[in-house]
UniProtKB/TrEMBL annotation:
GO terms for molecular function: methyltransferase activity. It comes from Streptomyces physcomitrii. This is Methyltransferase domain-containing protein. Keywords: Methyltransferase, Transferase. It comes from the Bacteria. Residues 1-24, 57-83 have a biased composition (Basic residues). SUPFAM superfamilies: S-adenosyl-L-methionine-dependent methyltransferases (SSF53335).
Length: 325
């Protein structure tokens, strides 16, 4: 039997065996994230935003100062950063992604309940993170996704826990996992069940979850969607449901990023991925996966994938040559 914190039973018996920030440093913002103002139009690239406008220059100056002071890594292309269309090596996972003590900008944003917070891409682009929404209660788009959940739910990368809390409030057995201590603490404070654990580590209830959630861009975790999909298939019960949120533009990107507060504090670099729906469906294919549902809200896009009942995840993924089809 699996128990999360506070001893609540989650699954059945195991089978045998802020303050407002100064407006002066306006960041450049990726076009897939229209919520925040983008950098100056004349600095925009072909997709509508540029890699480093006014704010970017400011960051470079600050980075330069830091470099002279010593130990922090300068922002530059990582020697093993994925090339356009290339694969991220998963042999080396930057550690620890998202959170690093002390001065972890993600933890600080979660404690404050607000940004600004960004994923800073290796080339300087800033992808805004919606900390305010993550720290609020579940909204309509969230509820539409949660309403599709079946059985016990595993929320991968649960962040501050609004989805875990909403599901628990509806009486659904739910566990959040996250590598960030601040995220787990926030989720527990909301009354949810949560573990500080990577999705790639050993987890309770492997192969028995009814639904696995990868919302808010979490299909990017680990920077290798095929590997993450395989992991989700291993976590799900045969016939279980994976609900993933995709980027609402046509994108299939592996990248190196840092969590960055736009004010000079950032995490170490780690691999990430961004996938639109078409890209996700190229990776999640029969015989292991079939598309169960696809829906959009005014600002977000979601896909539900059903794990097959008759195929072993690893065998199915191995049988597929990467990039085939
Ligand atoms: C884009 S945020 C998602 C926010 C979250 N869904 C929410 O509702 O607030 C990504 C989250 O994934 C977590 N994360 C990153 N890598 C992870 C991993 N390998 N295993 C579990 N969680 C991870 C981060 O700590 C972060 O909280």
């Amino acid at each position: 039997m699996v128990r999360a914190r506070r001893g609540r039973r989650l699954l059945g018996a195991r089978p045998r065996r802020a303050r407002p920030r100064p407006a002066a440093r306006r960041p450049d913002v990726h076009p897939a994230h229209r919520r925040l103002p983008a950098g100056p139009a004349d600095r925009r690239g072909p997709q509508g935003a540029g890699p480093a406008g006014a704010a970017g220059r400011g960051h470079r100056r600050r980075r330069h100062r830091r470099r002279r002071r010593g130990p922090r890594q300068p922002l530059r292309r990582h020697p093993r950063a994925p090339r356009r269309g290339g694969e991220v090596s998963t042999a080396r996972e930057a550690a620890p992604p998202w959170c690093t003590a002390p001065g972890d900008p993600y933890a600080q944003a979660l404690r404050a309940g607000r940004g600004p917070l960004f994923l800073r891409r290796h080339d300087g682009w800033l992808l805004p993170l919606d900390v305010e929404r993550w720290c609020a209660t579940a909204d309509e788009a969230d509820l539409a996704a949660l309403g599709r959940c079946e059985g016990a739910v595993l929320d991968i990368g649960c962040g501050p826990g609004r989805l875990v809390a909403a599901l628990a409030g509806r009486g659904r057995r739910t566990l959040g996992i996250d590598i960030s201590q601040a995220a787990v603490a926030h989720t527990l404070a909301l009354g949810g069940q949560a573990l500080r654990r990577s999705v790639f580590a050993r987890l309770p209830g492997e192969g028995r979850w009814g639904t696995v959630l990868l919302l808010d861009g979490n299909i990017g975790i680990g920077g290798d969607p095929r590997r993450l999909l395989l992991r989700c298939a291993q976590l799900l019960a045969p016939g279980g449901l994976l609900i993933a949120e995709t980027v609402p533009v046509d994108v299939d990107e592996r990248l190196w990023v840092r969590v960055d507060d736009g004010m000079g504090r950032s995490s170490p670099q780690f691999p990430w991925a961004r996938l639109g729906t078409e890209a996700l469906l190229r990776h999640a294919r029969p015989p292991l996966w079939r598309t169960a549902d696809h829906w959009t809200t005014p600002e977000r896009e979601f896909v539900a994938l059903r794990r097959s009942t008759g195929v072993a995840p690893a065998a199915a993924m191995e049988a597929e040559a990467p990039g085939r089809g």
